[in-house]
Amino acid sequence: MNPRLDAVRSLMRSRGWDAVVITGGDPHSSEYPAPRWKQVEWVSGFTGEAGEVVITADHAGLWTDTRYFIQAEKQLAGTGIALHKTRVPDQVLIPQWLAGQDFDCDEEGPVIAVDSLAMNLREVRSIAEAFSGKVRIVSAPDFLSPLWVDRPGIPATPIITLGEDITGESRKERIARLRDALSERECDAMLVTALDEIAWLLCTRGSDVEYNPVVISYLLVTMDAVKWFVRKDIFSPLDESTSDTFEELSADGIEVLPYDSVGVALASLAESGDVGRLLCDPSSLNYDIYGTISVPILEAASPIALMKSVKNSVEVAWMRDIHIQDGIAMEKFLYYIEKELSEGRIISERDAAIHLDSLRAEIPGWMGGSFETISAYGANAALPHYSTPVEGSAILQPRGLYLVDSGGQYIGGTTDITRTVPLGECSTLEMEDYTLVLKGHIDLAMAVFPEGTPGCRIDALARNPLWQFRRNFGHGTGHGVGFFLCVHEGPQDIRQNLNPEPLRPGMITSDEPGIYREGLHGVRHENLVLCREDSENEFGRWLSFETLTLCHFDTEAIIPDLLTRDELEWLNAYNAMVAETLSPLLSDAVAQWLQLKCAPLRP
Fold first, then answer.
1. Fewer Cβ atoms within 10 A, N terminus or C terminus of the chain?
2. Helix or strand or coil: residue 475?
3. How far apart, in whole angstroms, are the C-alpha atoms of residue 122 and residue 120?
4. Continuous segment of H or E residues that includes residue 466
5. DSSP assignment of 387-450, as one string?
6. In CATH terms, is domain 160-309 a member of 3.40.350.10?
7. What is the pTM for the complete model shown?
């Protein structure tokens, strides 16, 4: 990677820049960017989903969190790029690190260049604030393009629309809800920049970004117009379905405009006089587009995120159904793994992942994976976001633990499930970790909590069983999940960070505690849970969770004495429900196997 660092530094010298900041984001702050915006991977070789690079004249560093430390150390070896760890007690984030450097510059401060298309307003401001104003930030959109000669273009895939029979609500109704929210905030319009929010609002889906059924675009919603800036040629549609989509949107008052024309439209808002104040979410508004806006801005969290996170009854019904179908695929997969190993056949991590994908592909409405399947055996599972190699992946052995984290995108919903399964004899430590993580999962699944409780207040329920044995994990316990949308969404989560957003009935969140021992093994147990109304009494309204995921937990690696009576009862009841629901839908061989797997565990 040194030639690429040299090329960036040569560019810096020619333009008088003291530092450049390269992020892994796209113009919409998407979690999973299209290949065009994998700048961090291009310059460093690091393939993790979260990372930023800073390059100065004499230092290059990659900042990433606890999920990727092991991976980053391996991938950065020999590149001349140092690892800077985040989400640790002594972390020094990029703004503070830059402010602490002794740049050879004048009294106006150093010149720091940012790819203003790939950094949001909040990120750029945090750098300026760290310097107390004594810094010159240069907006340099796509500054890597002259060096990245084979850089991919902006993708443009066909668009589909979803009817009310799937969404439970029309785009007109959703736009009306947004306009009511804008009026409450004394705004005349909103620039929607997050791709999943645009998809939800317009009831559209695409495949511009791998694993995320979204369309790269901007959306301007005023009180009397909706303008969609999207990279599609409306005069020469990509195919017949795209043409039909545009006609449907036009009939609902959606004007389709070229993606690159959004800046001109925002610059002309002041002249039109139709918009007095524009709402923008600084967490997804890129710095380049921010510079084109010609009217006063209210910087605030998007109201769409909360609307989208609370699923209506139609969406919930679809999600329940798709989890039955997804559960069938998972049980077929786990049966296949056990049978193949018992018969002495060779299966690699990659073979297993491909087989699971093929089973999901048989499900009606399947639209692809919701993320890249993590198929990890033994020590590889100690990397929370392990990327299974295409070639040379580990061979599964009839001993130890195998972790598979996977999910599907379907017309009727999104799934995300992790199962850690014993492939044979396990060590005492493996069984302890397996059981303690499952205890944490169960304790959170059984939670009952007052209305208005945020996820950060119940995160400890999943961690306490591990804490009691002085063990822990570095990632969040739960994330929101979209409806045939992004597998990770907010505004709610369940983690230690102090996010005040309450959990609300209709929200779907993951429950996924884990533990990771470098060089040994990793354990994670994950289901999706639906927040629901539980009861009401003189102390107020109470909420609880309904588990949506249907796939048994293997009891062979459990140490029963570590489970309480309530935990054991929950586990046995869950496995019984899985067997009762899925067995009639499976072949006789798989159904009989599942019945044995779901037999009650005795103390």
1. C
2. coil
3. 6
4. helix 459-467
5. ---SSSPPBP-SBSEEEEEE-EEETTEE--EEEEEE-SB--HHHHHHHHHHHHHHHHHHT-EEE
6. yes
7. 0.92
